[in-house]
Amino acid sequence: QVYVVFSEELQCWCRALVESVWRQGDDCQLRCFLVDYAKYCSVASENIRVLAGAFAKVPYRAKKCRLHCTKPLTLRIDYCENTAKIGPAKRWDSAAIQHFRKLLE
């Protein structure tokens, strides 16, 4: 379900999908994907609202997607053997993400 959340970074209300919820002290925090900005953000529980009916029908400007058959890689350095090899990784590292974004621009 899509909600409306207030993004502190963008200083506006945005449509969002809630990814996860966790408790931080007495408050709840929500990890959200902003469907019109393709960004993830953390939002306090008091900054979430139910989306009005007409706005729920407007198509998203961004979609979560994955590259087909593309797996993350990382550079593994062995200081003992003085070698470096590229191997599989569980997640994309920040340098690879930044390089990919520059390619898209």
UniProtKB/TrEMBL annotation:
<keyword id="KW-0547">Nucleotide-binding</keyword>
<dbReference type="GO" id="GO:0042078">
    <property type="term" value="P:germ-line stem cell division"/>
</dbReference>
<dbReference type="GO" id="GO:0003724">
    <property type="term" value="F:RNA helicase activity"/>
</dbReference>
<dbReference type="Pfam" id="PF00567">
    <property type="entry name" value="TUDOR"/>
</dbReference>
<keyword id="KW-0677">Repeat</keyword>
<protein>
    <recommendedName>
        <fullName>RNA helicase</fullName>
        <ecNumber>3.6.4.13</ecNumber>
    </recommendedName>
</protein>
<dbReference type="GO" id="GO:0016787">
    <property type="term" value="F:hydrolase activity"/>
</dbReference>
<keyword id="KW-0378">Hydrolase</keyword>
<dbReference type="InterPro" id="IPR002999">
    <property type="entry name" value="Tudor"/>
</dbReference>
<keyword id="KW-0067">ATP-binding</keyword>
<dbReference type="InterPro" id="IPR035437">
    <property type="entry name" value="SNase_OB-fold_sf"/>
</dbReference>
<dbReference type="GO" id="GO:0005524">
    <property type="term" value="F:ATP binding"/>
</dbReference>
<feature type="domain" description="Tudor">
    <location>
        <begin position="3"/>
        <end position="68"/>
    </location>
</feature>
<keyword id="KW-0347">Helicase</keyword>
